[in-house]
Amino acid sequence: MIDSERIREMFSAVAPGYDRANQVLSLGVHHRWRRRAVREAGARPGDAILDCATGTGDLAMAFKRRVGVNGRVIGIDFARPMLELAHRKTVRAGMVIDLLLGDILALPFANDQFDVACIAFGIRNVDDPARGLSEMARVVRPGGRVAVLEFGQPDSRLFGRLYRWYSDAVIPRVGGWITGKPSSYRYLSDSAAAFPAGAEFAQLMQQTGAFQSVRIVPLAFKIAYVYVGTVA
Known about the structure:
- By secondary structure, the chain is of the alpha/beta class.
- 50% of the residues lie in helices and 22% in strands.
- It has helices at residues 4-26, 29-41, 58-67, 80-93, 129-138, 157-179, 182-194, 199-207; strands at residues 48-52, 72-77, 98-101, 114-120, 140-151, 211-219, 224-231.
- Strands 3-2-1-4-5-7-6 form a 7-stranded mixed β-sheet, with helices on both faces.
- Helix 2 crosses helix 3.
- The two termini are 29 Å apart.
């Protein structure tokens, strides 16, 4: 069982070094994955987007570039220090993105408000992932999309071994060195390894009853996936 208060404290603590750690640990590839998620979500100019667990705002900013000045992007997160960093980044970029403190399990929006709801590397940190997915679908119009970007596990024998070594030995050490919180990066690595991926996660989405279809897009030898659910 995930302790949401512990997760909030963890992300608040690593916030100052979070972007730098992501950049170093992924060699910048995480930005490419976010851009791919935007494309797969089918966002168009003028769309309304909700980015859940927005963190420091990278995915929200990627969507804002796609929807343009006539589109609206809202980012929501339950860790205030993350939102403060996101605010500074969006201001520097000259982007208008609404940033709200809130919880994916109780989104403060009426039904059918958005064209796309998304979450990047956050659904595995939710107390009840199925309920979080249902909440995202609730606030999206019928025929709109819920897009999830999340880690997987490579199934290639050689690459899988290499990746597991990197996850177990390198990520906690380097992430801990950058942020001063090695235990946080041990949790992030372990939770990614334990979380359902591929067809198993797509089945979880389907079991919510909120989606008429779910599409799976593997990235980088299945290190990550984009899942796109079309709202029923």
